[in-house]
Every structure is written in C-alpha cells, then in structure tokens.
Design a protein that fits this description.
The structure holds two protein chains of two kinds. Chain A is of the alpha+beta class. Chain A folds into two domains: about 30-105, Ubiquitin-like (UB roll) (Roll), CATH 3.10.20; about 115-185, Orthogonal Bundle (DNA polymerase, domain 1), CATH 1.10.150.120. Chain A is built from five helices and five strands. In chain A, helix 2 packs across helix 5 (about 165-185). By secondary structure, chain B is an alpha+beta fold. Among the domains of chain B are: about 1-55, Uridine Diphospho-n-acetylenolpyruvylglucosamine Reductase, domain 2; about 225-325, Enolase-like, domain 1, CATH 3.30.390. Chain B has a five-stranded antiparallel sheet. A four-stranded antiparallel sheet of chain B has the order 9-10-11-12, with helices on both faces. In chain B, strands 1-3-2 form a three-stranded parallel sheet, with helices on one face. In chain B, strand 6 (about 175-180) and strand 7 form a beta hairpin. In chain B, helix 5 runs antiparallel to helix 9 and helix 12 packs antiparallel against helix 13. The radius of gyration of chain B is 19 Å and the shape is globular. The chains are: A alpha+beta, B alpha+beta. At the A-B interface, strand 4, helix 3 and helix 4 of A face helix 2 and helix 6 of B. The complex binds flavin-adenine dinucleotide, iron/sulfur cluster (SF4) and FE2/S2 (inorganic) cluster (FES) (2 copies). Chain B: Keywords: FAD, Flavoprotein.
Chain lengths: ~180, ~350
C-alpha cells in the first residue's frame, strides 16, 4: 500500500482569468443586479462568478476569496437576503437579484450594523480575512431564527472557517446580538 | 474553467431541447457542485442550461395517498425546514441538515443534490488517472489514498462513494424520482436511481444525459417517530460522511412492523439490504438483534487499506442508529454527542 500522501496537483489550472477555448468567445450578457441598494446594469461573461464580478469588476474588495470552492465561507454574501457562497454562483444566473456585501451593511451615514459593532466589541477577529463572510453569515443567521443556543450558533456558523481561530469570540458576538434582538 | 455559452429557457420543453441538441451541454441548478468541478476542469460543458427559472419546479405539494412531492429546484434549506417535511419526514429533514453548510444548503437544490458527484481525490485531480473522469485510464484509489472510499459494492474499476446525505434518507424512505426526457416522463425508484460502478464507473446514475429531474416524491409517511440520521465524519460539521446511517422503524406496540436501514459513505450508492431489514420484522427491538442486522449488512465488506476502519465503524453505526430509532431519540444535528 502506498504511503499516506495526497495526490499531486500537477498541471492544476488556476481558476482566475478568462476561460480557455475552444470555440468563439461568447458575447457578454446584459444583466441587472441591485448591489448594496444600487441598481446596476452590467455585462458579464457566462463563467464570471458573483465573487469575481464583485471584486474584479466592481472593486468591492470586502468580499474575500479564500478557497474559491465553497469550502471556507470567506465569500459569503446575502442574495435576496439569504446567505450564499458567491464563489460558486455564476453572476449571469443571478440576473435581477439583490446582493448585499459587507460594504452594504452599515447605514448611509456610516453607522455600523449591530453585528459589525458586536464583532468589534467582542474582538471577534484577528487577521480579519474571514470577517466579512462571518458577519454576512451571522446577519443571515439572526434573520433565519434557527439558532439560539451557543451550540446552535456554532452549528449554523460551521460554513465559515476562521484560520485564526477567533471562534469563541465570534460566537460571543452573535450571542450578544441575538440577546439584544430578543430583548426588543 | 473552459468557455461555455449560457441559456435560460422558460419551459421544461425548451430546456430539454437545449440539452438534447448538444451532447456537451449540461443543466445547472444551484451550481455548488457543477461550478466547483468546472473550476477543476473535471466537468467541461460547452453550454450551460440554467434550470432555476423553470416554472413549477420550486414547489412542495401533496402527492397521492398522503405522499409529498418536492420540486427538483426546491433548495435544500427550504425542504429541510418545510413544516410538512419536518412533521411527516423528519428523517429527510435531519439528513439534509447534516450536510454541507447553511450557505451551501441555500443554493443547493434537490435535483442537484442527487446528482452531485463523488469526492474521490483522484476524480477531482485531472493530473491523475481515474476511470470515472477518464474511462479506461485506471483507478489509482485502489492502491492509493482511499480513506474515504467504498467498502461495499465496489468493482475493480472504481471504489468511489456517493457523497449525498439527503439521498441516504430518501433511499430509506423509498422515494421516487420523477424525470422528463425527449420521450416523455418516467419515474425512477430511488433504489434504482444511483448505480454501482461495475465496468462503467463514468455513469453515476440511471438518469439519461438528456433527461431532467422534475421532482422527488415521497410515499405515505410511516417513519416519523422512530428514526435517526447518524453521520460520522472527521469534524463535527461541514464535512462529508465517512459513514452515515438512516434508520427508521414502524412500530406496533413494542414490535417492529417494518424497518429501513440505508448507509451512506460506504458505497457508490445509498446502501440498503432488505434481507437484513427483514431480521427485525415482528421482533421486539434489542441489541443482540441489532448486532445480527449489522453483521448481515457488513457481510462481504472489503477494505482497501486506509478505509479498513470503515467496516467496523459502519457495523457500530448501524447498531447505534437502530438503538436511537427504536428508542425514538433521533440524533441531533446540533449536539453531536451520540446518545
Ligand atoms: C464544501 C462543500 C461541502 C459539502 N458537504 C456536503 C455534505 O456534507 N453532504 C452532502 O450531501 N452534500 C454536501 N455538499 C454537496 C452539495 O450538497 C451539492 O453540491 C448540492 O446539493 C448540489 O446541488 P446544486 O443544485 O448546487 O447542483 P448543481 O451543481 O447545479 O448540479 C449538480 C449536477 O446536477 C445536474 N442537475 C441539477 N439539477 C438538475 C435537474 N433538475 N435535472 C437534471 N440534472 C440536474 C447538473 O447538470 C449537475 O451535473 C457539499 C458541497 C460543498 C461545496
Ligand atoms: S475510485 Fe472511482 S472516482 Fe476514484 S480514482 Fe478510482 S475510478 Fe476514479
Ligand atoms: S471562497 Fe467561497 S467558500 Fe471559500
Ligand atoms: S480572523 Fe483571521 S481567519 Fe478569521
């Protein structure tokens, strides 16, 4: 039996950049997206992910690319109010939808969203790379209403990895917001 | 990713036409498996047919004789939290919630979940041979890294597992997949939907390339009280099953009327063995019986080295799942302590 080693990834093609031939380059397709409250008429190639559209075309760098394969949650945004992994969503398929990114959570006057406040209050990040995804995910978690206990918060946040291991404080922050919501 | 064109048909007929006119075309729903595989050059469709706006496939409604019909485009989240599913088929709800993450379940659809492909490392890596990805090139998993691979129903050509949790519950519940193709509609019982690899591991299912899934139909509910979905994996959440067991019993007093046991993570399809289930019929459930059932199911299981542990793990998981089902104490998908 072979030694325990993972298969080599030779010849692995990076994801970014224009898709490879054969065949003619399909036309860009017109779509409309409402991004952080602003209606945008856009033109996209079919293979552009929502994540690449946000970062590369619209300069909304808040949404992060961690794995690009649905495995980390750094790219989490709200689509029509529901959290999704923007790295696995083709932008062209989201024509007509509303997208909220971390840039769209604060009020127009810059007042932070209560979840953003709570993350600061509880020191819920270290490097900050996973944070926009964590916060978008947490905002959706509160709205979904399936999690109340710490165990439930952890389970419902399992789609957001934090390599700095700020998990304890992330759960504290979310618990705090849930408690304030419940007291309203 | 390769280049591809995109279509968003407005009717099932148009969607079928788009795909039947181009053998390299594929349907796309949530995209959570297909886009991932396209980024690895494992799937290379030249034309994507977006089925997410097709009318009528996003509904959950009553089916005949107390059953329930769940449209192919209902999200995994919507199905798992639907009141009718929770009340009548809690096993299905539990299995769905044991899978992936909240974000992924929001995008993932019922049809796409059934058709998700194996997580075999070699299948994903286009620098290595793999009979499933490149027929005839070989199966390096047999002598390679095979910790996550199958122990039942394998062939010399492929030892991959089907990764879906949802499908395991659907197998136990004897769901039926409703599909449409160029020659009209047909029904495929879940047991016949996924295939064993045999000498054609490139074919995961018996669905034809030009057919679309319309819905999943569940028969009259009988297992809403004594059931469990027990999933064992390398971390407590957001990981695929090493072994999972969907167990359900219909009871009459203290006796079993009918038992269903389906295993995930052990084969190329959700694994059921009706003759092992029969051992429970008419009996008062007790541990010695569960052990006999587990022995029967794992009889003939074969490890490939790294995955040898799965044989004992599966045996114990079956015993534990049957105990949970008999006691009416289903495994919580939040508190992962196994009671
Ligand atoms: C990080 C990660 C972790 C995961 N963990 C789990 C887990 O623990 N358990 C689990 O069960 N799953 C898990 N998944 C898999 C997830 O459940 C699937 O990716 C999802 O269910 C696929 O559904 P989709 O709608 O996104 O399919 P798509 O990616 O859109 O499609 C998948 C396939 O189905 C075909 N298809 C889709 N809809 C139809 C239709 N109506 N008719 C005909 N063909 C159709 C497509 O052509 C494609 O071949 C995980 C995924 C990721 C990325
Ligand atoms: S187990 Fe199947 S999918 Fe994996 S390398 Fe072998 S043939 Fe390919
Ligand atoms: S970048 Fe999307 S999940 Fe990691
Ligand atoms: S704060 Fe660094 S990854 Fe989470």
């Amino acid at each position: 039996m072979a030694d325990l080693e993972l298969p080599l990834r030779q010849g692995f093609a990076p994801d970014a950049g224009p898709a490879q031939g054969p065949g003619p380059l399909p036309d860009e397709i017109p779509i409309t997206l409402t991004i952080n409250g602003e209606r945008r008429a856009l033109h996209v190639r079919p293979w552009t992910t929502l994540l690449d559209l946000l970062r590369e075309d619209l300069s909304l760098y808040g949404t992060k690319k961690g794995c690009d394969h649905g495995q980390c949650g750094a790219c989490t945004v709200l689509l029509d109010g529901e959290r999704i992994n923007s790295c696995l969503a083709l932008a062209v398929m989201k024509d007509g939808c509303e997208v909220t990114t971390i840039e769209g959570l604060a009020g127009p006057d810059g007042t932070l969203h209560p979840m953003q406040e709570a993350f600061i209050e509880h020191d819920a990040f270290q490097c900050g790379y996973c944070t926009p995804g964590q916060i978008c995910s947490a905002v959706a978690l509160v709205k979904e209403g399936h999690a109340t206990s710490r165990a439930e918060i952890r389970e419902h946040m399992s789609g957001n990895l934090c390599r700095c291991g700020a998990y304890t404080n992330i759960v504290d922050a979310i618990e705090d917001v849930l408690a304030k919501e419940a007291a309203k | 990713m390769n280049r591809f064109s995109y279509a968003r048909p407005g009717s099932v007929e148009d969607a079928l036409r788009e795909v039947s006119s181009n053998p390299a075309a594929k349907f796309i729903a949530g995209g959570t498996n297909l886009v991932d595989l396209m980024k690895y050059n494992v799937e290379r469709p030249t034309h994507l047919v977006d089925v997410t706006r097709l009318p009528g496939l996003k509904e959950i409604g009553e089916a005949g004789e107390g059953g329930l019909r769940i449209g192919a485009l209902v999200s995994n989240t919507a199905a798992a939290y639907d009141e009718r599913v929770k009340e009548r088929y809690p096993l299905l709800s539990s299995a769905i919630l044991a899978g992936a993450s909240a974000q992924l379940r929001n995008s993932a659809t019922m049809g796409g979940n059934l058709l998700q492909r194996t997580r075999c490392y070699y299948f994903y890596d286009d620098a290595t041979p793999c009979n499933k990805r490149a027929p005839g090139s070989g199966c390096p998993a047999k002598e390679g890294v095979n910790r996550i691979h199958a122990i039942l129903g394998t062939s010399e050509h492929c030892i991959a597992t089907h990764p879906s949790d949802m499908a395991v519950a659907l197998a136990a519940l004897e769901a039926v997949v409703k599909v449409a193709g160029p020659n009209g509609e047909r029904s495929i019982p879940l047991a016949d939907f996924h295939r064993l690899p045999g000498n054609m591991p490139e074919k995961d299912t018996n669905l034809h390339g030009d057919e679309i899934i319309l819905a999943i139909e569940l028969p009259e509910p009988r297992f809403a009280k004594n059931y469990t979905y027990l999933k064992l994996r390398d971390r407590l959440s957001y990981a695929f099953a090493l072994v999972s067991v969907a167990a359900a019993m219909e009871m009459d007093g203290d006796k079993v009327v009918e038992a269903r046991i389906a295993l995930g993570g052990v084969a190329h399809k959700p694994w059921r063995l009706p003759e092992a289930e029969e051992l429970l019929r008419g009996k008062v459930p007790e541990r010695a019986l569960f052990e006999a059932v587990a022995e029967r199911i794992l009889d003939g299981a074969k490890g490939y080295g790294h995955n040898d542990f799965k044989i004992d793990l599966a045996r114990r998981a079956v015993i534990r799942a049957l105990s949970q089902a008999a006691a009416g104490t289903p495994q919580s998908q939040v508190d992962k302590r196994i009671q």
